[in-house]
Amino acid sequence: MNTEDLKNRLPHITILVDELLKNYTFTKTGGPADVLAFPKNQEEVKALVDYCKENGIDWLVLGNASNLIVRDGGIRGVVIMLTEMKQIQVEGEQLLVESGAKLIDTTYVALEEGLTGFEFACGIPGSVGGAVYMNAGAYEGEIKDVFDYTEVLLEDGTIKTYTASDMAFAYRHSKIQMIHGVILRTAFKLKKGQPEVIKAKMDELTKLRESKQPLEYPSCGSVFKRPDGYYTGALIQKAGLQGLQWGGAQISTKHAGFIVNIDSATATDYVELIAHIQQVIKEKFSVILDTEVRIIGEEVH
Ligand SMILES: Cc1cc2nc3c(=O)[nH]c(=O)nc-3n(C[C@H](O)[C@H](O)[C@H](O)COP(=O)(O)OP(=O)(O)OC[C@H]3O[C@@H](n4cnc5c(N)ncnc54)[C@H](O)[C@@H]3O)c2cc1C
To answer: Are residues 177 and 71 in the same domain?
Structure first.
């Protein structure tokens, strides 16, 4: 890719070349992106996508990189990171939020406005775009419960609005996983509540999360989806795998559903440990563990 041409054509966008993604991912692992771009508004996102299309360059979008393992060979093409697009507007009982806003910040705006419904998300460290893409959820709540509509830039340059009935929301799934698009902005519908009740709920869930999850180490949250009829952490414990270290990665001793980076782990350590867990659980219990975390990028050549 001619990165000088890209920089000259889009001079207002911050563009980093050969930037290590381990500086951004929550696991603190991952190789370089050929180009990492930080658009500030939807016009700049569109300009990047148009440029890639014209020049036959692959692109993908990242939110807060909290549900990702980027392999150590990194990502070819353009990685669009939306952390500069983080406006949160309040319109009555609706929040209109740009994709790069942190979900946690959004839940605190809801609290300040005395709006209830978003308490479940107060500890999920993703961006709003990533949370909609994943239908993120916790403690009996999911994005689909507060979702009104989202605006998505499609590869042909058009912006399409998806309402709840278009989104095919399911457990950690949304329609956007089936298309190549960029979620730009999402509207959430909440209800008037009492700030002290909302705050008490958020405090309770935060305490619960802190007591159960190894938040003191880098991780990508729950590595696997919950298989029907089982709890992943319990299966991994029962298989005798909890605490297993693979390179610098370890199956958390606090929560066996998490893999923590305890000693300069590489993405390869993560990917191999994940495969090992899947194999052991299949052999011992005939249960297939699908990953919730998304594994992207190239192996090291
Ligand atoms: C400590 C910890 C705790 C966690 N707890 C929870 C939890 O309780 N519940 C839960 O559901 N998750 C949890 N997670 C996982 C993660 O925070 C969520 O999945 C979150 O929604 C991912 O958002 P993100 O912005 O980080 O997405 P990323 O990791 O950046 O990306 C995830 C996927 O979404 C796509 N994507 C991101 N933004 C966009 C966009 N704007 N348009 C199109 N595609 C996009 C990416 O291409 C990628 O495929 C946890 C993670 C950690 C590290």
So the answer is: no
